[in-house]
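Write out this protein's structure.
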Amino acid sequence: MRRPVSAFLIVSAVLAAGLVGLVVGRSNGRPLGWLDGVLPAAAKQSPTQPEATGPIIYYRDPDGLPDYSLTAKKTSAGKDYLAVHASEDVSFEEKAPETMTAKGGERGKIRYYRNPMGLADTSPTPKKDSMGMDYLPVYEGEQDDDSSVKVSTGKLQKTGVQTEIAERRALNTVVRAPGTVQEDERRKSVVSLRFEGFIDTVENVTTGTHVHKGQRLMRIYGPNLSSAAAEYLSALNARPDAGISNQALKGARRRLENLDAPEAFIADIERTREIPAYVSWPAPQDGEIVERAAVNGMRAAPGDVLFRISDHEVVWVLADVAERDLSLIEVGQKASVRLRGYPDRVFVGKVALIYPHMMAETRTARIRIELPNPDEVLRPDMYADVEIATGAETPVLTVSSSAVLDSGERQIVLLDKGDGRFEPRAVKLGRRGDGRIEIREGLAENDKVVVSANFLIDAESNLKAALKGLDSGGKSP
């Protein structure tokens, strides 16, 4: 039963082969009319290719390899290189009209082709790099301006190049530094005796108590003070005919003053003509008691510190300013202080002193800022963040910080000359602040500079300089 089927398949294959051979054999004419109903419509039509126009500009490898020639040649396998006409040349770069140059005239002839990735590699003929990208043509007109670089409009849009106008502004630089709150050294005092004494009682004042000037702190007895008081009383009570001169009276009073006797104690002797047994010792100033060593019944030697009193109406903030910012600080500048304990409050003071010595360990200089402290929320040893506004009100020429390309040895900006042309311009910088930089030399007011994607244009400029160096070195394309 299977033999007739096999014979049928063999006959069908022979007929199909014959049909194909007939079609191939008639390659110089149209297929037979009876085949029009057999072959599909797609087999009868061939895609129309645009006819190549223009002169032959080079020949390319027939196998698609990145190999080109200015003249006709064959591959190692004997295949002819394919001719490429002007209309068939393809570039991945956006091309400007072939009849125009960067300056508006007719485009000059191609001098050579450069590497599309910016490498210092040129070719006298069109070629591709290892990634298959076309080398870019360099025309004679594009090298006329040695100081500028031409960037196509499409590339400017793709890279997001932005420009701004150089303008004059009052540049204020804010110097920030850490600091701490300290006591004013001029508002501290100690309570001690100039004679040997004994403390009878101490008033109800302790460490942290706020006292006023003249307020009694303790009651003491001193034998030497009582002896000097008796001598002064004798001089007061002596009659003029007793031989006691006014000079002796002044000497007796001066002895009491040298023992630092309180004025109230001397006044009581003059008023009552009696010698008090104890002396009420007053506070020498307003302030808080920061130390108390006096206790009831103790013996106090001359010079012993019995109380320490500090006035916190005005405090210091000692800030450590970096060495590079020291030249911006001047005495009298306003300073804003924020305490970490009161982050929502800003305390305003002035720079009162720049200390003469640097701190070698941190390379900082210490400055003193005086702050009023009426409600006494500023406490010694609190941490503070200091901001000092420096600078003058006179406007200076400035650009955005992003406009400056700083290599360490030189600083440049890219000047927009219009029509996609940019010129690198060396500048000298001044002060910085508020995201802007002072330009002292190199620019004029209203010059347009690049502030975004300027490093890409700078790379193009460096590439142009490198290619020009190769060209001038004798390697003509």
